[in-house]
């Protein structure tokens, strides 16, 4: 969890995608997140956390369903939502928190 903590505590927006390999909606979201990254560029980092490989992190953030997206800035949770969100909505949420 140390490395994760370092990543989210930077003065940069970090969108965290809690997902699982067996999750259909997670597979749908993956290319959408690439598109989001292309639109926001260096204004945000987007990282993926597999809940099966990181159960401690999933428990810490009380991830009940996947995909669940969390948005951090300076280590503070700014936004959280479960499910697949449209690209334009995610870009807007990131831009509002820059």
From TrEMBL:
It comes from the Bacteria. GO terms for biological process: cell redox homeostasis. The record marks 17 as: Deprotonates C-terminal active site Cys. Disulfide bonds join 23-26. CDD domains: TRX_family (cd02947). One of its GO terms (cellular component) is cytosol. The keyword Disulfide bond applies. InterPro entries: Thioredoxin, Thioredoxin-like_sf, Thioredoxin_CS, Thioredoxin_domain. Keywords: Disulfide bond, Electron transport, Redox-active center, Transport. The active site is at residues 23, 26. GO terms for molecular function: protein-disulfide reductase activity. The record marks 24-25 as: Contributes to redox potential value. Residues 1-98 form the Thioredoxin domain. SUPFAM superfamilies: Thioredoxin-like. Belongs to the thioredoxin family. This is Thioredoxin.
């Amino acid at each position: 969890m140390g490395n994760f903590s370092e990543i989210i505590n930077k003065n940069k927006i970090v969108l965290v995608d809690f997902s699982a390999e067996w999750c259909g909606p997670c597979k749908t979201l993956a290319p959408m997140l690439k598109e989001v990254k292309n639109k926001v560029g260096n204004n945000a980092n987007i990282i993926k956390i597999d809940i099966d490989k990181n159960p401690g992190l999933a428990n810490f953030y009380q991830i009940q369903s996947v995909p669940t997206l969390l948005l951090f800035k300076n280590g503070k949770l700014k936004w959280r939502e479960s499910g697949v969100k449209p690209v334009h909505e995610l870009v807007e949420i990131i831009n509002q928190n820059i």
